[in-house]
Amino acid sequence: MHVTALVTSMALVDPETFDDKDVAIIYIAGRLAEGERVEQVLSDNAIDYTVDIEAFQKHVLGILPIEYEGVGFYVLAGQAEFCRVSCATRA
Asked: Facing residues of 27 across strands?
């Protein structure tokens, strides 16, 4: 008998999926490569997520703040800590 494992892959979902649910931002990707790594981590762990444009700052020479826009990744609040740790170690 041959048994095949069923793997459910979660993915980017419409923001309305999280309506009336407690969500948390877990990462702001400032570069495409960062965003792709975060997407891979979330997909590998079967986490539903949504994205939105978010502002963030970097400091030039440690003193001059420059504002940029990046992609903010949001997950259900109960999964946020796990996702932050996973992204920090792999993204």
From this structure: 73
Residue percentage of the chain with pLDDT more than 90: 66
15-90 is classed in which CATH architecture? 2-Layer Sandwich (3.30)
27 near 42, Cβ under 8 Å?
no
Helix (H) or strand (E) holding 58: strand 50-60
3-state secondary structure of 62: coil
Tokens, residue 16: 């309305």
Write down the domain spans for the chain: 15-90
Q: Is-contact 87 41, C-beta < 8 A? A: yes
